[in-house]
């Protein structure tokens, strides 16, 4: 299947989803917001891969939301219309849900960032499980420079990685935070000299994760996200119930035998998600 904003390749249990509009600095046009969740759902619900790697092309990772989008969101051409606020709310919730597909899917999502990551691009990467950058990469919560408050996902998620005071500084000033500072603050897992080196390392990491028992990886992703958003007591109860319901002894035995015999494990993929037809 072909897409306007992405190329998708699947090999070795890894789906490589690549933004493919470098001539437009990978700005997030209307098609982006429709295609991303569709791609993620297709990979996840049909068990086509065990890990997703999200990357980009050209000198800029993403210029953020395309300015043309602002003319259409909430019927912005007619701001005096009484339904403007309600329409805006509906549209922003749709954009939020598009990025939340990365967090809500069953499999890990790794993202590789080169060059600038502006505005909506920061919303995008914070919805992923792990982030890697090139030495020349940077983020900027750019919305303040165009008179906006970032609203598609940055604030609720970036606060899980950085101190509140630093997030406020980035939000209030729109300053660029370089790769090394992103790593030191906890946003980036690692920084690499160039794009080629980064992609090689990230794909190796993705293949390593893909070699692990998929159900256990899914359990980890679910438990980590749940623990982030709930109390310790609730999180402990949740993971106990998860393992009570989902633990598969045969997968555990295979993992232990594979380790002992120094071979790749033979694990079952996650079951496809059946969707009811209307």
Automatic annotation (TrEMBL):
<dbReference type="GO" id="GO:0016853">
    <property type="term" value="F:isomerase activity"/>
</dbReference>
<dbReference type="Pfam" id="PF00378">
    <property type="entry name" value="ECH_1"/>
</dbReference>
<keyword id="KW-0276">Fatty acid metabolism</keyword>
<dbReference type="InterPro" id="IPR001753">
    <property type="entry name" value="Enoyl-CoA_hydra/iso"/>
</dbReference>
<keyword id="KW-0443">Lipid metabolism</keyword>
<dbReference type="InterPro" id="IPR029045">
    <property type="entry name" value="ClpP/crotonase-like_dom_sf"/>
</dbReference>
<keyword id="KW-0413">Isomerase</keyword>
<comment type="similarity">
    <text>Belongs to the enoyl-CoA hydratase/isomerase family.</text>
</comment>
<comment type="pathway">
    <text>Lipid metabolism; fatty acid beta-oxidation.</text>
</comment>
<dbReference type="InterPro" id="IPR018376">
    <property type="entry name" value="Enoyl-CoA_hyd/isom_CS"/>
</dbReference>
<dbReference type="InterPro" id="IPR014748">
    <property type="entry name" value="Enoyl-CoA_hydra_C"/>
</dbReference>
<dbReference type="GO" id="GO:0006631">
    <property type="term" value="P:fatty acid metabolic process"/>
</dbReference>
<protein>
    <submittedName>
        <fullName>Enoyl-CoA hydratase</fullName>
    </submittedName>
</protein>
<dbReference type="InterPro" id="IPR045002">
    <property type="entry name" value="Ech1-like"/>
</dbReference>
């Amino acid at each position: 299947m072909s897409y306007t904003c992405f190329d998708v390749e699947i090999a070795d249990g890894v789906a490589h989803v690549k933004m493919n509009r470098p001539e437009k600095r990978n700005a997030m046009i209307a098609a982006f917001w429709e295609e991303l969740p569709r791609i993620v759902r297709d990979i996840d619900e049909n068990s086509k891969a065990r890990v997703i790697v999200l990357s980009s092309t050209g000198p800029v990772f993403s210029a953020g939301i395309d300015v043309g989008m602002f003319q259409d969101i909430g019927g912005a051409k007619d701001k005096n219309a009484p339904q403007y606020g309600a329409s805006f709310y509906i549209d922003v919730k749709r954009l939020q849900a598009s990025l939340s597909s990365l967090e809500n899917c069953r499999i890990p999502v790794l993202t590789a960032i080169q060059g600038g990551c502006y505005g909506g691009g920061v919303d995008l990467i914070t919805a992923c499980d792990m982030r890697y950058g090139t030495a020349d990469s940077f983020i900027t919560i750019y919305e303040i420079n165009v008179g906006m408050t970032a609203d598609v996902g940055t604030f609720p998620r970036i606060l899980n990685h950085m101190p509140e005071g630093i997030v406020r500084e980035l939000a209030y000033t729109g300053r660029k935070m370089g790769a090394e500072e992103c790593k030191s603050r906890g946003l980036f897992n690692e920084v690499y000299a160039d794009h080629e080196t980064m992609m090689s390392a990230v794909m190796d990491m993705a293949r390593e994760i893909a070699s692990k028992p998929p159900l256990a990886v899914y359990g980890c992703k679910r438990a980590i996200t749940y623990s982030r958003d709930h109390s310790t007591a609730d999180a402990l109860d949740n993971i106990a119930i998860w393992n009570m319901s989902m633990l598969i002894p045969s997968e555990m035995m295979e993992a232990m035998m594979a380790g002992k015999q120094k071979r790749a494990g033979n694990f079952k993929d996650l079951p496809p998600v059946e969707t009811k037809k209307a």
